[in-house]
């Protein structure tokens, strides 16, 4: 619906994806506008800054051929909005929410602002319900809790796309399978990656419970800024209006932050760390903090943002700021990937700060927390012994040390390296006990005697060994 027919014709200049309009102080921040050129072509845009002198508009398409003398700007909506509906489930959209699956546009139940509404801290409920991803290293060691925001830290060339697709098809809240949905938003994808995700979701049937937003690398930079907000707006509607438990997967946040830096450069802003805008922390928080559980609402929004760390540097501003805002991290390891282990998740630097809220008796299994602690300790010991062997040789080790060395190998082969298998939490704990049972009982210091008596000696079948996708 057009709110105002007034046109603004005093276009001053264009800088990259930004258009500067004089004498437009009555335009509102975040308003959606149309930019019409002399040939009649119309481009969409969004107001990102308003002052007494001019308004700055981000253009959603390329600016080639846009003539300043004949261009005019007209208001479309007071704020960027998305038409949402239950019928979005099973559909694919571009970064601006337009269908790209060849089907008609969604008939919207309502149109809502993509900026969302701030979640009242007093209305937030404590996240304490386990989400099963089917991936042993996450479910046992770095458990994902409903309403949590738990990022995946990866690196260039590592299989985080394959990991994201596996989580999307396998994740579920036990007992709520019927009202579980996935909202998947990908930013800055190559055409090969678009084809991979499209085929993967269709092949596995995951599309039937998913909403996909796919922004390609050759799409306008500005679209990349809007894509995660489109996804989170859809997730909030499904969760808090329709009662779904929604898992939002955002990949790759590094591409999103690079778009922020590009826009900031075009606006001639003073850069912060490594050229990124000083407000990047606030901007990322505006995305991550849209996860949560609201008291009195049946649904929930859980986030798994994925980012590829430049040069595998965890101190880079993107993972650094993300770590401050979110509740832990899952670290994809280049060394494990080089060994052909999939998914190459290293449990030692990984952490879920809310794990204790959602596991244990009545939630997963009574021995879950202690098994997780014991696996962590034994694997850390095994890796330390590997370094020692590189110096002294294996002959210098005691028999117990050799068992820890073998434990580390088995842990990587059978527990971490599950390939494309979908394991329940009970199956993951069975594999864990099968590996732990190769250590002497006296070494299982994180486990009680009753627990050891109950589970020690669990047999692990060779079929548990996963194959790389």
TrEMBL record:
Produces ATP from ADP in the presence of a proton gradient across the membrane. The V-type beta chain is a regulatory subunit. This is V-type ATP synthase beta chain. The gene is atpB. GO terms for biological process: proton motive force-driven plasma membrane ATP synthesis. Belongs to the ATPase alpha/beta chains family. GO terms for molecular function: ATP binding; proton-transporting ATP synthase activity, rotational mechanism. Residues 358-456 form the ATP synthase A/B type C-terminal domain. SUPFAM superfamilies: C-terminal domain of alpha and beta subunits of F1 ATP synthase, P-loop containing nucleoside triphosphate hydrolases.
């Amino acid at each position: 619906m057009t709110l105002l027919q007034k046109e603004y014709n005093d276009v001053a200049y264009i800088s990259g994806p930004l258009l500067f309009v004089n004498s437009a102080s009555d335009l509102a921040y975040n308003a959606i506008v149309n930019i019409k050129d002399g040939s009649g072509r119309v481009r969409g845009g969004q107001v990102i800054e308003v002052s007494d002198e001019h308004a700055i508009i981000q253009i959603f398409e390329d600016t080639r051929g846009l003539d300043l003398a004949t261009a005019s700007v007209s208001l479309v909506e007071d704020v960027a909005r998305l038409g949402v509906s239950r019928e979005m489930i099973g559909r694919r959209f571009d970064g601006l929410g337009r269908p790209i699956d060849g089907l008609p546009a969604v008939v919207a139940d309502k149109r809502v602002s993509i900026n969302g509404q701030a979640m009242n801290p007093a209305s937030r409920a404590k996240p304490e319900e386990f989400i099963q991803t089917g991936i042993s290293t996450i479910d046992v060691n770095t458990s994902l809790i409903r309403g949590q925001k738990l990022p995946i830290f990866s690196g260039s060339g590592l299989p985080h796309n394959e990991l994201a697709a596996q989580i999307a098809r396998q994740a579920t809240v036990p007992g709520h399978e019927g009202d579980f949905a996935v909202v998947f938003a990908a930013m800055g994808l190559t055409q090969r990656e678009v084809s991979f995700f499209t085929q993967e979701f269709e092949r596995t049937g995951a599309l039937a419970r998913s909403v996909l937003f796919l922004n390609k690398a050759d799409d306008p930079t500005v679209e990349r800024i809007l894509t995660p907000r489109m996804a989170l707006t859809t997730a909030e509607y499904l969760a808090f209006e329709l009662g779904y438990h929604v898992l939002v997967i955002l990949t790759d946040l590094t591409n999103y932050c690079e778009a922020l830096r590009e826009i900031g450069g075009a606006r001639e802003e003073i850069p912060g760390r490594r050229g990124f805008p000083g407000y990047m922390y606030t901007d990322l928080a505006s995305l991550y903090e849209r996860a949560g559980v609201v008291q009195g609402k049946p649904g929930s929004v859980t986030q798994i943002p994925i980012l590829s760390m430049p040069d595998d540097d965890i101190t880079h501003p993107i993972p650094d700021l993300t770590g401050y805002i979110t509740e832990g991290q899952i670290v994809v390891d280049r060394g494990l990937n080089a060994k052909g282990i999939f998914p190459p998740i290293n449990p030692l630097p990984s952490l879920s700060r809310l794990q204790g809220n959602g596991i244990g008796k009545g939630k997963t299994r009574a021995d879950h927390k202690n098994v997780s602690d014991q696996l962590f300790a034994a694997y850390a010991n095994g890796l330390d012994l590997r370094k020692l062997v590189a110096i002294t040789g294996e002959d210098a080790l005691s028999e117990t040390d050799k068992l820890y060395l073998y434990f580390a190998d088995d842990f990587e082969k059978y527990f971490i390296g599950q390939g494309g298998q979908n394991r329940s939490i009970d199956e993951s704990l069975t594999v864990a006990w099968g590996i732990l049972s190769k250590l002497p009982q006296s070494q299982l210091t994180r486990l009680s005697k009753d627990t050891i008596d109950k589970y020690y000696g669990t047999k692990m079948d060779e079929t548990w060994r996963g194959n790389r996708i």
